[in-house]
Structure of Methyltransferase:
Amino acid sequence: MYENSFPNKRFKHTIQFLEKHVSNSEAILDLGVENPFTKIMQQHGFSVENTKGEDLDIDVSTIEKSDANVVTAFEIFEHLLSPFTVLKSIKADKLVASVPLKLWFSSAYRSKTDMLDRHYHEFEDWQFDWLLEKAGWKIIDRQKWTNPTKKIGIRPILRWFTPRYYIVYAERV
């Protein structure tokens, strides 16, 4: 089902990490609109509701109204100006979140055509940990993985051994 190509490698690591920490009986609120990974979670037996595309920097009402046991946020926080506000608004006791890590050899992602598809933050692991802790979360488990490409050059070589993604499982303190 998964191979080592983007985004399949990321999806494989993410679903394995999610299954390690979250039971299929727990309701999930996934931050962000329905996407290919939503379908993967559902195929693995998870009950998933997504936010509706609202600007979470401005409107956290869906998060505040949710009765989900778990909130997932896969590659969402880097798009927000204020991820702290979103993290504080979560009522669920469990959080599984992943972010792309800041790479010293590559600038932050910025779409040339989509004003909303930009990274305001690309975290170092310690920065994301600090953000979570400051927002009232205790990190229970964490994992990193690389995202190699089959391109030629110095940066593609660095991607073979430099972690690109960081995922955490945290519980509300």
Q: What stands out?
A: The radius of gyration is 16 Å.
